[in-house]
Amino acid sequence: MVEVKFCENIDDSLLKAAVIIAKTNGKWVFCKHRERDTYEIPGGHRESGEAILETARRELQEETGAVVYDIKPICIYSLKGRISETKNITNEAFGMLYFADIFSFEDFQSEIEKIVITDTLVENWTYPVVHPALKCLKF
Asked: Which of 4, 46, 60, 108 could disulfide-link to 65, CB 3.0 to 4.6 Å?
């Protein structure tokens, strides 16, 4: 079982990842990884020496090709437990959740096979117990 929490404040050094809920023209933006048949929102791990906002910007560009966008922090989240068939987080892991409004995209090369832009949330989530917890947030 996975535990998802939304937090008020923690030390910046504990933020290990950034996840970005994104829209363009009022539609949701999802990514499909080349090695999976599921969909996810853009995001990834923080690199050494990187500010967490820079992590969010880098991951958004790498995974969607977004070049012109507004991005803002929403909240800190934490995860603990089995988040997918192959991924189990034994110690609580913290990240920053962002919202991005994307105005333009460019072609990109990454592990992402394609992006999907849709009016509705996808049903085939990569992390089916984590991403739906985000539906409680209003965008």
From this structure: 108
